[in-house]
Amino acid sequence: MPPPIPLLFGPMLIGAFFNTTLYGVLILQALLYYQNYKRRDSKWLKLFVLYLVVAETLNSGFSIGLLYEPLILKFGQPAATTFFPLLLPAARLRPALPYSSLGIAISTPIQLFIAWRISVINRRWWISAVIGVLALISSSGGIWLAWTVVHVQRFARKPDLHWPALMWLLASAIADVLITVSLVYSLARRKTGFVQTDDTINKIIRMTVQTGLITAIFAVLDVICFLVLPNTTLNFVWDLALSKLYTNALMSTLNARQSLGQMLSPGQSATNYSTGLTNVLFSDESFMRSHGSHGLSSEGTAKPPGLSTFFIADELYL
């Protein structure tokens, strides 16, 4: 027996609202990114951002279609409350069918991208390898979930989706926690004892925790609602917004480079901020070797040790 109408379409409507709201935030972040970094970042990174914007546009369209079908096209028909919407598999996975497949096609590349950057920063490939394996496991679980939705079809059989959902969401949540812990550890090691530098590092740590853990929290809430309340769609409150959280977290990291550069080099002009200091996700200690690491600025005055670690080696990685 399908759940009551309020518990069937209400959570999906709230989830779609979160999805479209975060889509608006993403568009603003994308505009800021291309305005500030279109001449500095490499072509492949700008194309990656464009890919995410296009994929998220499709994702939001599918989220709206997910509700349009039962509430408009099938309004008053028994099929609306009996069968899953046709776009549901696409909405949940993000690489297999229209909507489900889109979720995976968004979250997995972002997790793999950040795992690669962590390997560059920490020089420890095994941490990135574990994150990459978890991202691929999550992706496989998402594809399995989309395939299962197609074959289960009915809301009354929603408990049959538990195992693929568990594989998808838990692997993703663990990967998010590992990413957050790895970045916080890397940042903490860069503290110098200088107030200006350490204040900026603390700010980056707070941003890393906020953006990293929120995706893990949403994934955990998604799976808890899925398992504890199997006869409702309350998990969609968290589920439909999940991919937008990944993309907005990455975009906020990219866009934060300019403001962090301004904090560490207050004497620079606005034009130079985007080419100066950056956060740990896009830092590279090898830059110190090419810009000097003996504690002297270009004018020969003392500078906070470790400050150069926040510069970005564009020619090597971006």
From TrEMBL:
Pfam families: DUF6534 (PF20152)
Transmembrane segments: 12-35, 47-68, 96-118, 125-147, 167-188, 209-229
InterPro entries: DUF6534
Domain DUF6534: 172-259
UniProtKB keywords: Membrane, Transmembrane, Transmembrane helix
Protein name: DUF6534 domain-containing protein
UniProt source species: Leucocoprinus birnbaumii
Phylogenetic lineage: Eukaryota, Fungi, Dikarya, Basidiomycota, Agaricomycotina
